[in-house]
Design brief:
- Its cofactor is FAD.
- InterPro entries: CobZ, FAD-dep_OxRdtase_2_FAD-bd, FAD-oxidoreductase_2, FAD/NAD-bd_sf, Succ_DH/fumarate_Rdtase_cat_sf.
- Pfam families: FAD_binding_2.
- This protein is of the alpha/beta class.
- The chain has 2 domains: 273 residues, FAD/NAD(P)-binding domain (3-Layer(bba) Sandwich); 153 residues, Flavocytochrome C3, Chain A, domain 1, CATH 3.90.700.10.
- The protein is built from 12 helices and 18 strands.
- Strands 1, 2, 5, 6, 7, 8, 17 and 18 form an 8-stranded mixed beta sheet that branches.
- β1, α1 and β2 form a beta-alpha-beta unit.
- It starts with a strand and ends with a helix.
């Protein structure tokens, strides 16, 4: 079986939000575009399938947002969650460009739902997709296909030919497994299943995600504890394209141990558990490790600005596991996991069900209860419910665990995406180690998120990075063509 040759203007590697924004933007500027997606069609879209919202700056309330969110406030939030570990020029550029994204995304067929209240506290800052991330993806794919963008599913890029910062071609191979719909379509640039392909393009947009599903690569930074990590998103993000770019002289950016990592239900599957395994109840109770000891302030900031630190916190605990404890008054205050909480009529009984020492857990809860100061509980503000006298205080939303039954969720680190990636400029062009910008290589989404996210996370920023830099990359690639 011979090699299939494909020629196009812009090759987009990846099939998620960043890739589709790039493909649509390039096509709207007249370029011929081919998208190569490693996953089968049903699983297309990488981690975008599991998303719910995006964070964009805006000057006033809208039909789906309750108030303004200025560029400066967005910058302040990003600066705080990253602790200054961000490229200010790129971050401010992204924030400024985010203001146009809500309109642009809507123009591509994506719909938003009315603002959400409750514990997420995002009604003013974040726009939620009507139908979630999969509905958003479907809208982008419909638009891309209507514009004439070609898509190859179930096709992995196996090599990149890059000379002196200039992309020449990609080698790819269609899967021989079920679900390879692209391989059955003759005449549209598809190759038979299993056949090698040579794809020549005048510009490349790398939007193939991070390496979070590559446990061996995670171990290079984390060590053996990575064996206990769960991967919230797609199993297809193994970092092959990122590795190819770095090997070709692209300048890396970011720490390999920095990532979007949240505490998810320890009973979740190894891959693709998604949003329904995330737990948002930390602020309503306490979190203990295998020694039945608290290890961090559960009430230091609003949950959307702190939920993504808890994966790293749990990763640092013995056996990379922890337990969120709360009582009956908090049971209906948050979005539950797919799995029911573990329930008991007493703290000692709960300890037994969690395989924790009953004496140690009872002591921890008693000390916490004794340290809680009177206050007025309100999870929507920085309330005055706090502890006093503990080695690790709970600074807000502290209430005694005293109303049985008692509940617990076991949690492990849930890795969403990694921050080690390719350095880019404001035009989304990748930068080479030589100090020059690549002539025709662009990057968007997780593969370059480390430019903005040196550490930490705030809800919705990943989708902002993907949408903004995806559009910039697509437009830049089309201009180059």
């Amino acid at each position: 079986m011979g090699e299939t040759w494909i020629r196009t203007d812009v090759l987009v590697i990846g099939g998620g939000n960043a890739a589709l924004c790039a493909a649509i933007a390039a096509r709207r500027r007249g370029a011929e575009v081919l998208v190569v997606e490693k996953a089968p069609k049903f699983y297309r879209g990488g981690n975008t399938r599991h998303t719910r919202n995006m964070r964009c700056a805006h000057d006033s309330a809208t039909d789906t947002l309750t108030g303004p969110y200025t560029e400066e406030e967005f910058w302040d939030d990003l600066l705080r969650v990253t602790e200054g570990n961000t490229d200010e020029t790129l971050a401010r550029h992204m924030i400024a460009r985010s203001k146009e994204m809500l309109t642009w995304i809507t123009d591509q067929g994506v719909r938003f739902q009315p603002s959400l209240g409750g514990t997420l506290s995002l009604g003013r800052t974040n726009s939620f997709f009507l139908g979630g991330g999969r509905a958003m993806l479907n809208a982008l794919y419909r638009t891309a296909e209507d514009l004439g963008v070609q898509v190859l599913y179930d096709t992995a890029v196996t090599a990149l030919e890059i000379e002196g910062g200039t992309f020449r071609c990609a080698e790819a191979r269609a899967s021989t497994g079920p679900g390879n719909e692209a391989g059955d379509r003759e005449g549209d640039g598809a190759a038979p299943s299993g056949a090698p392909m040579r794809i020549e393009a005048k510009a490349l947009v790398a939007a193939a995600g991070g390496f979070e599903a590559n446990i061996e690569w995670l171990k290079e930074g984390w060590g053996e504890c990575a064996e206990n990590f769960l991967i919230r998103g797609t199993p297809y993000n193994r970092g092959e394209v990122l590795r190819m770019l770095l090997d070709a002289g692209v300048e890396p950016i970011g720490d390999p141990t920095q990532c979007h990592a949240v505490a998810i239900d320890a009973r979740a599957p190894r891959f693709d558990g998604g949003i329904i395994t995330r737990l948002d109840c930390v602020v309503f109770g306490i979190v203990v490790n295998r020694l039945a000891e608290r290890f961090h302030d559960e009430g230091e900031d609003f949950w959307p600005k702190r939920y993504a630190i808890w994966g790293r916190l749990v990763a640092a605990q013995p056996d990379q596991i922890a337990y969120i404890l709360f009582d009956s008054k908090s049971l209906t205050s948050f979005m539950p996991s797919l799995y029911p909480p573990i329930q008991a009529s007493s703290i000692a009984e709960l300890a037994g069900k969690l395989d924790l020492r009953a004496e140690a857990l009872s002591r921890t809860v008693a000390e916490f209860n004794g340290a809680v100061r009177p206050g007025t509980f309100d999870h929507t503000i920085f309330d005055d419910c706090r502890t006093e006298g503990l080695a690790i205080e709970k600074t807000h939303w502290a209430r005694r665990l005293e109303d049985p039954p008692y509940y617990a969720y076991p949690v492990r680190p849930g890795i969403t995406f990694t921050y080690l990636g390719t350095r880019v400029d404001t035009e989304a062009r990748v930068q080479m180690r030589s100090g020059d910008a690549a002539s025709n290589i662009y990057a968007a989404g997780e593969i370059m998120a480390g430019n903005v996210l040196g550490k930490g996370y705030a809800a919705g920023i990943g989708m902002t990075i993907g949408s903004v830099f995806g559009k910039i990359a697509g437009e830049g690639a089309a201009r180059h063509v």
